[in-house]
Write a structure and sequence with these properties.
It contains 15 helices and four strands. The protein is an all-alpha fold. The chain has a two-stranded antiparallel ribbon. Helix 3 packs across helix 12.
Amino acid sequence: MRKLYKFFTWMLVFIPVAVYMEYAGYPGLWVFFACVLAIVPLSKFLGKATEQVALHSNTMTAGLLNASFGNLIEVVVCVFALYAGLIGLVKASIFGSIIFNMLFLIGLAIFVGGIKHSEQKFDTMSARISTTMLLIAVIGLAMPTIFQITLGSENVQHVSDWVSVVLAITYICGLIFAFYTHKAYFDVIDNYVVEKIEPEWNKNFAVMIMIAASIFATWIASILVGSVEATMSTLGWSQDFIGLVIIAILSNVAETISAITMAWRNKISIAIEIGTSSAIQIALFVVPILVFISLLFQDRFSLVFNLFQIISALFAVLILNFLVADGKSNWLEGMQLISVYLILTIALYFV
C-alpha cells in the first residue's frame, strides 16, 4: 500500500506539467493526456482525504461529506463541459460513471477477491436496497427520453427539472435511511462483527489535503475540457467515447482502488457497497446538481439521453441485481461483469 501511495505521489508532477503545456501552447492532444494523468492522483488523494475526514466525524456528517466530495471531479468536469456547450460529453460521462461502477468496478473487485478467496459472501440486504435504488434512478433518468419520444419535446425540460427534484429527494431519503433510521443495514460487517476503522491522518491534515485536491482538480478539469475538442478532431473519438469511457474511469480511480483493496481483504460487502453507492450518488445527486446549475448557462441540461446509454444502464442494473441475489460471489461472476463493460466499450469506440 505504501508503494501505491508513493506512485500516486510521483504522479502529482503531471499537475504542473499539464498547466505548463496549456499556457505554453502545446497541442490539445498533449494537454488532454497530461490532464488525464494529473487527475488520476488528484482523484485518489481527494477520495482518501474525504474518507479520513469522515472517520473523524459522526455518521450523518460522514454521509454528507461523501455526498459532497465523493464525485467532485465528475461534477467539476461536467460543469466546465456544460459551460463549453459540450452537452453530449456531460450526458455520456454520467451514464459512463454509472455503468463503470456497476460493471467494471464491482466486477474487478469480485474478480480480484475471487482469485484469493474461492467464494466470498456478502450482505444481501444492503445489496438489494442499493440495486433497487439504482433501478429507480435509471427509470427516472430514462423517463424524459421516453416522454420526448412518445409525446414530443415541448415540455421535456420541465419534465427533466421535476424529475431531478424527485431524484434529489430520493437521494436525501436514502442518506437518512442509511445513516440514521436503518444504519444497521449498512454497517461495515466482517463475519457479522462490526469492525472499527481508525483514521490514518489527523483531521486538520485531511481537511487541508481535501481542500488542496479540490482546488487543483477544478483547475485541471477546466484545462481538460478545453482540450477535448482538439482531442476529438485528432483521434477521431466521439463525445460518447470520451465521456462514457475516459472521464468515467478518471473520476472513479479512488473508488476502484478502495473496492479492490476491500475485496482482496475478503470484505466483499464493502467493495460492492462502494460501487453501488458511487453509481447512486451520480444518478441521484450529481444529475440534479447539473440540471439546476445549467440554469446559469445558455444551454439548459435536460435528461434526454440516447437509447444506447439508457439500455446499457438498464442492462447493467439487471445483471448486477441478478448476480447479488444469492449473497455469494466468485471470480467468474466478476469476469462476467467486466466482459459486459468491455463489450459496451468496444461498441462505443466505433461510434
